[in-house]
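Lecture 7 notes: from sequence to structure.
We start with the chain below.
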Amino acid sequence: MNPIAIMETSVGRIEIELWPERAPKHVANFETLVEKKFYDNLVFHRVIPGFMIQTGCPNGNGMGGPGWKVDAEFNKTPFTRGVVGMARSAHPNSAGSQFFICVADASHLNGSYTAFGKVLSGLEACDSMAKLERDRRDRPLVDVKLVSITMPGAADNKKKVMAALEAAAALAAKAAATAALSAAAEASAAAASRSAAAAAASSAALASKVATPVKAAAITKPVVAVVQAKPVATRAKKAAPVKAVKVVKVEKSKPAAKPAKKAKKAKVAVKAVKSKSVTKPAKKAKVAVKAKPAAKKKAGKKAK
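Predicted C-alpha cells for the same chain:
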C-alpha cells in the first residue's frame, strides 16, 4: 500500500495517497518536510475556481521554499480532478515545498509538472476553498490554514520511499549505462563509416586514374562531333562567295587585252629594228667587200 498523508485544514480534512513509484524524489522530499513539520500553520495562498488550490509557501505569497530544489520527475500521469502536483517556477528543476491539488481536469499541465499523489477523500474541502473570494493575485481574502500534515506508519512509508529511490537510482544507472553503450556503438559505427568512406574514396581515386584514358576518349568524341559540325556550317556559308570567282575571271580577261596592244607595239618595234638593221649593214657590207680584195692583193704581192 502506498503512503498516506492526512492534511488538517481550517475547512476540513483531506487525505492524499502518495506515489513513490512515479515520483520517488518528490515523495521523499514531501515526507522530509512533513517530519520537520514544515507545513504546519501555513496558508493556501492561491485558489482558482475550475483549476486548483495551492499551499506550501513559508512566506505566504508563493515566493518561498525550503532552501533546496528537487529535480523534475515528469511522468505520464494526467492531471485530472484530485491529482496532487508539485509547483515550480519556469525552470523544470525548481520544485521545493509548494504543491497544488487540482479541483478540475488540467490537461495543459500534463508532462510539464510532476504528479506525485491523489486525493482519496476531502475533495469537497478543496472545492470550498476554490470558491472563496480572492484578490488579483488569487489569494483568498480570508485565510485558509493548513493546520498540519501527518503520515501514519512513517517508518514503513520511509522504507517504501527508500526502496523506490533505490529502484529509481538503479533505473537511472541502467539508463546511463545503456546510453553510454549506445554512444560507444554509435561512435564505433561512425568510425567504421568514416573508414569505409575513406576506402571508397581511395578506390574511387584509383579507379579514376585507371579510367582516365577511357574518360578522355569519351570526352573527345563529342568534341570532335561538335568541331565537325561547325565546318559543315561554315562551308555552307562560304558557298555564296564562290559566285565572286566569276568576277575574278572577268578581271583576268581585261589584262589579256593589254598584252595584245603591247604585242602590236612589239611588232612595230621589231619592224623598225629590222628596217634599220637592213640599211646599216648594207653599207658595212660594201665596205667589207672592198676591204677583202685589198687584203688578197697584199698577200699576193708578198708571195711574189
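Points to note: Residues 223-234, 244-260, 262-304 have pLDDT under 50 and may be disordered. The helical segments are 24-35, 123-130, 154-210, 212-238, 244-303.
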